């Protein structure tokens, strides 16, 4: 819903009573200009009666008093193109303010503000989200059901040995690119969830695993 000055319903934006029109301005005789002399100099400016048009309305509209428009609150349906981002502008032709009497109305421009999402983040045409996985899933690999931005779900393959922070890509599952037939990608950012303070059998198993793997993640760093 928005407020604007719409073309008058009675005169259709002409500013004149139906059945009447415009006549030649009696002050400038249709030239649209008035000349003023100051000493040896002569200057021309827009006619104060017709505003430079050279004509005036003989019988102003009884509704808009010759203005050609009146305030109106209106609700319209607007198609938002797929792929728009915050700051994008959508143009609706002919829904701006009424022009000067007899002139067409201007356009309505809508500035888009995209709401944030609880799961997905936007990076240009790409969509990113965090995917929590277990230590075992990262080490052995897994097939995990994930949500899709447009609705529904799909299976994502997590390769064995996947590292925390790694991005797994689903091609073409991002936002449509404006003025293009291509789309961005969907990226799952891996977040490995480590058990907090394991005890008993879990702690023993982790200690055994550490001995079997014999890994030093800091080797060669310092």
Shape: rod-shaped
Q: Supply Rg.
A: 34 Å
User: Please, what is the average pLDDT?
Assistant: 91
Number of helices: 2
Assembly status: single chain
Secondary structure tally: strands: 14
- The H-and-E topology, N to C, reads as EEEEEEEEEEHEEEEH
Helix/sheet category: mainly beta
How far from one another are the termini? 63 Å
Q: What is the name of the CATH topology of the domain at 121-197? A: HSP40/DNAj peptide-binding domain
Instruction: Characterize the biggest β-sheet.
Output: 4 strands, mixed
Spatial ordering of strands, largest sheet: 9-10-14-13
**Strand fraction band?**
25-35%
- In the CATH hierarchy, the architecture of the domain at 121-197 is Sandwich
Uncertain stretches: none
Going by CATH, the homologous superfamily of the domain at 121-197 would be: Urease metallochaperone UreE, N-terminal domain
For the record, what CATH class of the domain at 121-197 applies? Answer: Mainly Beta
Instruction: Tell me roughly what share of residues is in helical segments.
Output: under 10%
């Amino acid at each position: 819903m928005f407020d604007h000055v719409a073309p008058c319903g009675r005169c259709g934006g002409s500013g004149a009573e139906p059945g009447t029109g415009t006549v030649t301005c009696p002050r400038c005789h249709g030239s649209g200009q008035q000349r003023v002399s100051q000493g040896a100099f002569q200057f021309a400016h827009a006619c104060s009666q017709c505003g430079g048009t050279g004509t005036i309305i003989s019988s102003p509209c009884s509704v808009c008093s010759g203005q050609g428009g009146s305030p109106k609150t209106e609700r319209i349906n607007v198609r938002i193109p797929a792929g728009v981002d915050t700051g994008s502008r959508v143009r609706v032709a002919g829904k701006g303010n009424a022009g000067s009497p007899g002139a067409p109305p201007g356009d309505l421009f809508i500035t888009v503000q995209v709401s944030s999402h609880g799961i997905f983040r936007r990076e240009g045409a790409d969509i990113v989200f965090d995917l929590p996985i277990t230590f075992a899933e990262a080490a052995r690999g897994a097939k995990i059901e994930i949500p899709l931005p447009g609705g529904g779900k799909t299976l994502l393959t997590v390769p064995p040995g996947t590292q925390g922070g790694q991005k797994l890509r689903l091609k073409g599952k991002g936002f449509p690119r404006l003025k293009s037939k291509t789309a961005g990608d969907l990226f799952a950012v891996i977040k490995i969830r480590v058990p907090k303070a394991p005890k008993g059998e879990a702690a023993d198993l982790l200690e055994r695993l550490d001995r079997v793997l014999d890994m030093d993640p800091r080797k060669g760093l310092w």
